[in-house]
Amino acid sequence: MKELEQLLYRSVMHPVSAKSLTIEQKKSALRYLMFLKEKRSGEIKGRGCADGRKQRVYKTKDETHSPTVSTEAMFITTIFDALEERDVAIVDIPEAFMQADIDELIHVKLNGELVDFLVRLDPTYAAFIVHER
Description:
The protein is an alpha+beta fold. The chain has helices at residues 2-9, 23-28, 61-64, 71-83, 113-121, and strands spanning 30-38, 44-50, 108-109.
């Protein structure tokens, strides 16, 4: 799965032994969510993100939102571009969020089939698997 490959390729995450974490760190670890979509071509596309709901207790909404443009702002900008006959280029920055700097340590926990996919991509992660009740 490309999304997990990118996590490894970009060195976005590094495995940590569950035994080395404090109880508080284990409780505050964010779950990794993967959303799958089948494209018209039949290809399966995955989008992953950390489930930040636990952070709402100690972080403001401004500190945890994704910096994406609003629909209204996009339409207003498009109108001005058209009225002023501007040249417009659309760019996609691959894995943009994975390239962003994060100024704090965040523990993310993968569950279920995501663990299996990850171990298939990089067998060294098998040593970090913990079975929970």
